[in-house]
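Exercise 3.2. Students should predict the tertiary structure of the chain below and write it as structure tokens, then compare their answer with the key that follows.

Predict this chain's 3D structure.
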Amino acid sequence: MIDPRISVIEKRFSEIKRIISVVSGKGGVGKTVIASTLALSLAKNNYRTGLFDLDFYGPGCHIVLGVGKVFLEEEKGIIPPKFHGVSLMSIEFFAKDEPVAMRGTEVTDALIELMAITRWGPLDFLIIDLPPGLGEEVLDVIRLLRNTEFLVVTTPSKLSMMVAEKLLKLLKRVGANILGLVENMALTHNMGSTKPLAEKYQVEFLGSIRLDEKLEAAIGVPEKIFETIFFKDIQKIFEKLCKGINTDR
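Answer key:
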């Protein structure tokens, strides 16, 4: 039996020009901060931008954006509240600081439900923050949002690169559209050390984001994030992502 929510999802996402899912092989590589800051960067440059936090076990986009109490507006679905120009939807709005314990089909059901009830409207970009690893959420997004592009995040550490390689293999195997590889927490003297990994799997190396000791203190205050080295490096990646997009309203 076909889930009727699938057809609803197609309509919900039909007015979005580009969907970029930010993924990583393992946690702790800065995936959520990159996804959130990329969304802020796009909105700052006048793109209609949404941010979808699908990291059910560790949602953090709302923390990066400095979101406090949220009152969700319902009108034939839920309209994502907007912060700093970014429309944000997160499982956190429903969990309210409580741990989310799900397994197997429960994860897929929750993901489909959240996709089906969210009314994005017209967007230039939707950035999706997916949980680290090769779990249900990544596979479900591949299945449900066939036009999504995957931005893979890794650090130069051997462990991170090893798991990122497995993720690249999986995405290649299922025919996913890989937008490129981003190197985070790069040391100045060793920037670009993950580029050979991108070349091995024939994906674009989108650039390095330098390790910025001031970033942690800026989390939650976008105005301070805009002043960091981290944000300057994100801007360079943003310029590559925006090539060729039609922004006519």
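Discussion points: The chain has a mean pLDDT of 91. Residues 158-173 form the longest helix (16 residues).
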